[in-house]
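worker-03 picked up job from queue 'complexes'. Input manifest follows; two sequence lines, order preserved.
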Amino acid sequence: MSYGPEEHYKGLSPELEKCRHSAAHIMAQAVKRLFPEAKITIGPAIETGFYYDFDLNKPFSPEDLTRIEDEMRKIVKENYPFLREELSRGDATLLFEKMKEPFKVEILNEIKEDRVSTYRQGEFLDLCRGPHLESTGKLKAFKLLSIAGAYWRGSEKNKMLQRIYGTAFPSQQELDAYLKQIEESKLRDHRKLGKELGLFSIHSEAGPGLIFWQPKGGRVRWVLENFWRQEHFRRGYEFVYSPHVARLELWKTSGHWDYYRDSMYPPMELEEDQYVTKPMNCPGHILMFRSGVRSYRDLPLRFAELGTVYRFERTGVLHGLMRVRGFTQDDAHIFCTPQQLQGEIQSVLELVDFMMKIFAFTYQVALSTRPEKFAGQLEMWDKATQALEEALKARNIPYKVDPGEGVFYGPKIDIKLIDALGRPWQGPTIQVDFNLPERFEATYVASDGKHHPVVMVHRAVWGSMERFLGILIEHFGGAFPLWLSPVQVKVLPITSDEIPYAQEVKQRLVKEGLRAELDDRSEKIGFRIREAQVEKVPYMLVIGGREAQGHTVAVRERKKGDLGVMDLDAFLKKAQEEVEQKSA
RNA sequence: GCCGAGAUAGCUCAGCUGGCAGAGCACGUCCUUGGUAAGGACGAGGUCACGGGUUCGAUUCCCGUUCUCGGCUCCA
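worker-03 finished. Artifact:
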């Protein structure tokens, strides 16, 4: 499973493409003016802007970025036309050799066409397919954003280059809107909100990539887990628990030791035996499946577990809750007959749809088919792929096909969820697995009295509690819907005279199952409201003399503000209904 | 792991070119009883991430380690 937000290439309009690609050239020109020793490599337009990679001995500093940007403004002002020239590949190679641009020469060596094109603006010339703006003066709005290391041709084995990221738009308004969106994303950063709202923490004393759920985050997770169990039980899942460590031998049988060792914590020696912490739950579940003779009458068997796994991830890739070393998957393995496969996939798709709607995510579906290297029989692959495809069709789900993108052990359906800011995240996954049943000789007895290999479906709806909560934090900007909020209601007496009634109100709410807290500190009401707002508490009940007298509450909603006075019972009913409906 | 940047009070951050460590918020005590987003006074808080080095003297300069951040690569 991968970490998002990931590349979600909608394809740029030709206009935007030209604008950004030209911006990249102008940046390269500016860099060459300021750092003549820099070697140019490639500089494409990307969804969020553009970049250009340079080979230069000394690193760019943030001040350099400003200087480069200023130089770019000059180039825009100088308004050079972008001039296209065509020449033979051989001539181009000679040209770039003369210019001492070895990376361009390397690219030319791999180009198959005989004719190539270059673009010139002023003194700067680059090998490029184009197209470009008419002239540098047409670049209206751009900004350089960051400096980063990037491998030449994206390979770890190659030299590390220096990449400068920037963005450009046809108009200043569009640029401003984009910069504002970046700010908005920063405000929603789950690491920032997680700290501010007391949801979770990470401690260097304990180690990187290990999450500690603080009380507030613990509440949210607890609510989510209960909901998850309830929905799964309703849908015929059984809950199992499997140990966190197991003999190394088990992981050799499953194949993980061969294929996945780099991501596993190394073995522990115990009484002349070796144990490893689990990086996945599947081998445990398959042991449980295999613990007795299974008849086709017993199937399907759906083993679900909020299973905590540990994977070694390189420090450089760790990221808040999104990429961690210890996490809890909302895992389940479905053991069924080939005939049942399509129906089971449909049920999972139904569950996925249900879950996505609950949290107000939209989503996109992709079907990944057989890769070149694969386990199992061809015939099985075809049947399984067909089952996945038919399940999607039966449920009228639009999807695209990613040919050859399946895992070696089986085809899969991957679902990307789109959050409130339109950002995509790797979400639910449904994978058919031919490999493990074979390795473990997991079979069932069919009506013919013979053993047949069982079909195993591996699926996760949320992925992991950590990542899903991270996505939820960003999706809701920390303002969880009522049913998920760690503190749902804050009771705020105006003066100390109303404390007894406020206590009564709070206790009533708690008794009725709401997570209510009383803030009776001797602070002004405005101050306590502000604090509750900052904590993103959905409802504040302001209680003054009038309310205490009339057994009412003055309701304030965090987004809509003052809702006016209500009977306590009326508020209770309203809140309970909202919780029940899980309105997002 | 790689390139770059960073680590100063619980949090957010200031501290120019070496000379006994600062602000706001939060926290504690007291005053204030205030009707829908910040009332006031006083106070406590630091091995300047850790370990070495240079120096009369290091939060500041150098090296290493750990962790964090932006990317790259990786990611069943």
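worker-03 released lock.
The longest helix of chain A spans residues 14-34.
Residues 1-10 of chain A have pLDDT under 50 and may be disordered.
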